[in-house]
Design brief:
single chain, mainly alpha
């Protein structure tokens, strides 16, 4: 797969993933933590704010992988 196409697919996947992730985290927060104390909000959003990084790193790593054109 050409590098430009892989980067295009990866960027679209990142945008979709982050959008869906935000909706899920905010939905869980509004249902579960509506009347919770401030410190539970802090912990939830700190963890939720960092949890998207490993999947995004995997997508970026896939995007930046060198092109294998079969020549040696």
């Amino acid at each position: 797969m050409p590098l430009r196409l892989r980067k295009l697919i990866g960027m679209i996947a990142l945008i979709v993933f982050i959008g869906v992730y935000i909706v899920i985290v905010l939905s869980v927060a509004s249902v579960r933590f509506a009347d919770a104390p401030w410190w539970s909000h802090l912990i939830f959003f700190a963890v939720g704010g960092l949890l998207w990084v490993p999947p995004a790193m995997a997508i970026i790593k896939w995007m930046e992988r060198p092109v294998d054109d079969g020549r040696r």
